[in-house]
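All the exercises in this workshop are built on plain-text protein records. The record below serves as our worked example for the rest of this section.
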Amino acid sequence: MFSLTYGKSFTERSLLSKMEKTTIKTHVFEYNRAFSAYKNASNEIEIEARLHQALINGLKEKGLVNCDQDDPIRIADICCGAGDRIVKYLRNIQFQSGIDLIAVDSNPDYTGLTDNDSVDHKQDCEKLNSTNGIAGDNLYKAMQAKIIPLNNYRVLHADVMKCDIMRLLLGSQTGDHCVKDFKLVYLLQCGYYFISSHHDQARFKELLDKICSDLLSSDGIAVLSHCCLEPNTHVSLFNYATGKTKSLIPTPKECLDLSVHTSVTNLCDNLGLSCFDIPYTAYLQLSPQVHEYKEIFKDPKRYCELDNKPDALADFYTFLFIYDRSLDDL
């Protein structure tokens, strides 16, 4: 779950502190800018990374997951985003023969690519350096700095809701790799986009089935991460703002019916998959002055007052991400 707090900003918010002037677009939802502000205001990734490292290391100690095999561990990061989250997840875990990673996303800002295109660090170094793909850049830096034992990686541009995940990943394989040899497959914070309709939920069920049946090795794990709908969280704020709930405090029934967690759990039950929960609480930390800025946020004519106020801009775009829409649509 997530809670909203007010206080000293996280250090990562320094990204926005360098902004002196900015252009605020009211007619489009600037996802990348909003998501960046949201990530910088949250300690979610850091908490998840520590939990994940403890989980995998614990499973290794019990002999339930083998990361010490002779061949590199194969990992897929579906909806990889900027590629920084997976790097934090895989730190402090020993992989004897290193990692081969496939990262997939549909956002060209993250991939630097278009449909049916990819970047392989070994074969396309010049191409990699000529693109502005954030994910490829972050993975390349992680490899060069040896933050994680990354032997090889490939960035793919694809919408997993519209493509065959098997064909997509098979097309990126080389050598004698068989299909069912992925040790870890990540679906991080992407369930929200897959359960908005019955059609999307059916597609997500198919995707999850293929991952677990055809991609994962016998001791492989699929890792899903999502925020639950609970009172006094940013998810409850979003659901109220978008009219999905009648009150800022959702009812127990609404928490069940509208929760990504409920949908994912039901899908796993329907597919006969073992599903284990690791609940935690993360915080979305806004600036101490957020209450002073709120009147400015409501009036586009006053947006010029946000210049040279990096904390205000960070709060502003964090709220836009929570609402998941442009200012004109609010």
Notes: Residues 1-20, 122-131 have pLDDT under 50 and may be disordered. Residues 8 and 287 are 6 Å apart (CA to CA). Residues 44-227+261-286 form a domain with the Rossmann fold fold (CATH 3.40.50.150). The first strand starts at residue 2 and ends at 6.
